[in-house]
């Protein structure tokens, strides 16, 4: 029994330190959660793959209660049939948002608190020019900081009280002539060593596991390319279809990098960037569009002017840097998603038509893909022109739909979670 009392008394300080560590691990702002889970499909002020989110709590069932928002985020597929507003939303955007069961109610509240407090476009940023923090994020960070300071103060107080208790006990023993062995220094005390090892194992294990899970992922990766190519100018403003440049994305495994032939189809006659809006990089430096076109000409071996004749044999392809990379053991076929599954480019690549400099928006993790397979419905009506006759082999599912046992079929139902579907 005395052994357990000793452990209980000597665990106060390590326990408080452990509490501080876990508070720093769990502390996460609404903006961070939004960027990790929502930003791929949603903007604050413009519709993308999904609707814009500013003012979302003033629309439809979400104006009634935030509990409806919790239900929606946790399981959109189940919530859609419950209100006319969400049914109309589904018809408008044509797809169902993935479920996020891993987000707690507190995480969801943090997201929508941040959205509510995020400054409007053009408004002064609360932390100065070029800052990315918002009032909601600042509040969350302040709360985490206050909690951490209080925890640290309590830990210091506990340490002082433990030392006072030890000194008082020593004085009491000396007065009563009780001989006790000299206390073991803390660096040789087995209890302290064991508690420190446990704390180190838990905290270190958390970060090692988190780092190992994220190994090789490149969410947010935004390399500088040999030519500053603005998708916003080409796919957004000029409405050039993605398949014009990435012509194999609909028919082949790889989307492909456009050849200089494709670029020069337009730029043999477009040799200056004059009428479009100004282009800025991530550091707010203005990009000279005409100079970037000249870089293209240099790679293509083309000299503009009257009577210009381009010989592709003199061209040298730019060394483009691949942004979206999957591990070698993962099989992914673009046509299976774009042509068969009718998946839009923005689902995986984000609002590409609004990006000047492309970055990887989705985490492209195994869990991210599996969640999509669990939620995405397939066009199981193979009798009409839009259906896929391959699905005619699933006779059981067709019978279940006719009998009312099922109302839809997802990728998961037709083997979308089988390991060999995606792994060699």
From TrEMBL:
Gene3D superfamilies assigned to the protein according to its UniProt record, in alphabetical order: Cytochrome c-like domain, Cytochrome C3
Stored Pfam families: Cytochrom_C (PF00034)
Transmembrane segments: 144-162, 191-209
SUPFAM superfamilies per the UniProt record, alphabetical: Cytochrome c, Multiheme cytochromes
Record keywords, A-Z: Heme, Iron, Membrane, Metal-binding, Signal, Transmembrane, Transmembrane helix
PROSITE patterns documented for this protein: CYTC
Record bears the keyword Transmembrane: yes
GO molecular function: electron transfer activity; heme binding; metal ion binding
The Cytochrome c domain, residue ranges: 25-119
InterPro entries: Cyt_c-like_dom, Cyt_c-like_dom_sf, Multihaem_cyt_sf
Record's signal peptide: 1-27
Cell inner membrane in keyword set: no
Protein name stated in the entry: Cytochrome c2
Organism: Flavisolibacter ginsengisoli DSM 18119
Top-level taxonomy: Bacteria, Pseudomonadati, Bacteroidota, Chitinophagia, Chitinophagales
């Amino acid at each position: 029994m005395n052994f357990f009392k000793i452990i209980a008394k000597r665990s106060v300080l390590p326990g408080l330190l452990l509490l501080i560590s876990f508070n720093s691990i769990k502390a996460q702002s609404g903006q961070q959660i939004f960027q990790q889970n929502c930003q791929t499909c949603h903007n604050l002020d413009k519709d993308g793959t999904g609707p814009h989110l500013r003012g979302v709590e003033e629309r439809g069932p979400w104006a009634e209660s935030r509990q409806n928002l919790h239900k929606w985020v946790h399981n959109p597929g189940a919530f859609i049939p419950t209100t006319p507003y969400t049914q109309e939303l589904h018809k408008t955007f044509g797809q169902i948002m993935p479920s996020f069961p891993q987000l707690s109610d507190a995480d969801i509240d943090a997201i929508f608190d941040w959205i509510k407090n995020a400054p409007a476009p053009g408004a002064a940023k609360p932390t100065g020019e070029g800052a990315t923090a918002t009032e909601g994020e600042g509040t969350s960070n302040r709360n985490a900081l206050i909690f951490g300071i209080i925890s640290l103060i309590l830990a210091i107080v506990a340490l002082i009280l433990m030392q006072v208790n030890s000194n008082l006990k020593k004085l009491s023993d000396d007065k009563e002539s009780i001989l006790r062995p000299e206390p073991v220094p803390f660096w040789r005390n087995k209890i302290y060593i064991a508690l420190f090892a446990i704390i180190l194992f838990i905290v270190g294990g958390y970060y090692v596991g988190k780092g190992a899970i994220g190994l090789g992922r490149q969410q947010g990766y935004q390399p500088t390319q040999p030519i500053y190519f603005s998708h916003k100018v080409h796919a957004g403003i000029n409405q050039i279809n993605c398949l014009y440049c990435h012509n194999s994305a609909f028919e082949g495994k790889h989307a492909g990098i456009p050849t200089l032939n494709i670029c020069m189809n337009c730029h043999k006659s477009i040799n200056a960037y004059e009428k479009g809006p100004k282009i800025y990089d991530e550091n707010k430096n203005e990009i000279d569009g005409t100079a970037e076109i000249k870089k293209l000409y240099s790679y293509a071996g083309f000299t503009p002017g009257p009577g210009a004749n381009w010989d592709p044999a003199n061209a040298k392809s730019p060394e483009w840097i691949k942004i979206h990379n999957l591990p070698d053991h993962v099989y992914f076929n673009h046509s299976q998603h774009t042509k068969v599954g009718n998946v839009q480019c923005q689902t995986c690549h984000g609002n590409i038509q609004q990006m000047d400099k492309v970055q990887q928006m989705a985490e492209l993790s195994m869990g991210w893909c599996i969640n999509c397979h669990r939620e995405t419905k397939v066009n199981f009506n193979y009798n009409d022109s839009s259906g896929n006759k391959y699905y005619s082999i699933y006779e059981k599912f067709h019978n279940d739909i006719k009998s009312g046992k099922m109302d839809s079929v997802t990728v998961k139902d037709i083997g979308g979670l089988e390991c060999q579907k995606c792994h060699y």
